[in-house]
Amino acid sequence: MRLRNLLVAVTAATIVVAITGCSSPGIHSGAGSLGAAPQLPSAGSGSGAGSGSAQLGQDDGYIPTGETVALTDDVPAVTRLDPRLLEALDRAATAAADRDVTFTLTDGWRSERYQQTLFDDAVQKYGSEEEASKWVKRGDESKHVRGEAVDIATADAMDWLTRFGGEYGLCQVYANEAWHFELTADSDGVCPAQLPDGTAG
Ligand SMILES: [Zn+2]
User: Fold this and answer.
1) Out of 74, 77, 147, 178, which could bridge 81 as a Cys pair, Cβ 3.0 to 4.6 Å?
2) How many angstroms separate the alpha carbon of residue 154 from the centre of ligand 1?
3) Cα–Cα distance for residue pair 45/170, rounded to 1 Å
4) Which option is the CATH number for 55-200: 3.40.50.150, 3.30.1380.10, 2.40.260.10, 1.10.3720.10?
C-alpha cells in the first residue's frame, strides 16, 4: 500500500517536471509583447453607444484601455509614427533609462476612423461637440492621426519629459494633457508656451 502511494507520487512528480520542462520556452516566447494579444476586449464600449469602437483593431493603432506599448513594439501605433518623433523618443528614452524611467505609450499613431470614434465618444461623455473638442480632436485634425503625437503612460516618464524633453525636441503641448507630447521645441530645445487645451490649437 505504501509503496504504491510512493510510486504514484513519483510518477506524478515526473509528469509535472516533464510538462514544465517542455512548455516553459513556449510561454516565455509569447510574453511581454502586445503582438500576441490581438483580441479585442472592447465589448464594454461596444454595446449601445453605436460608435463602432468594437471593430477597431491594431491596424487602427488601437491600444486597449489599460494596456501600453513599448517604443520597440512592431505595431502600427508605433511604426506609423513620424520617424523624427520616434527617433527623438528613442534618444530621450535612452537618457531617461539612466534614471530608471521607462517610456511606454498608451497612444501613438491612430487611424482617422479611430480618432473619429474617440471624438464621437467624447461628445457622448461631455454632452456637446464644443466641450468634447477641449479633450479630443476630430478625425482629420489630430496630430495622432498624422503620427506626430504620443501619449506617455507613466507619471515618472511624464515628469522626466516635462523637465528634460525639450533637449530632445519633445514638449507637452496642452496644459490639460500631461501625457501628450509632440516635437515642438525650437532649435535651442525651448518649448513653446502651453496651450490651455485642445480648442486653442
Ligand atoms: Zn495625445
Assistant:
1) 147
2) 14
3) 32
4) 3.30.1380.10
Q: How far apart are the C-alpha atoms of 155 and 194, rounded to whole Å?
A: 18
d(CA 142, CA 114): 11
pLDDT digit string (tens) for the chain, length 201 residues? 455 554 444 444 444 333 333 433 333 333 333 434 344 434 333 333 345 555 899 999 999 999 999 999 999 999 999 999 999 999 999 999 999 999 999 999 999 999 999 999 999 999 999 999 988 998 888 999 999 999 999 999 999 999 999 999 999 999 999 999 999 999 999 999 999 988 765
Residue ranges of domains in the chain: 55-200
Å from CA of 197 to ligand 1 middle: 11
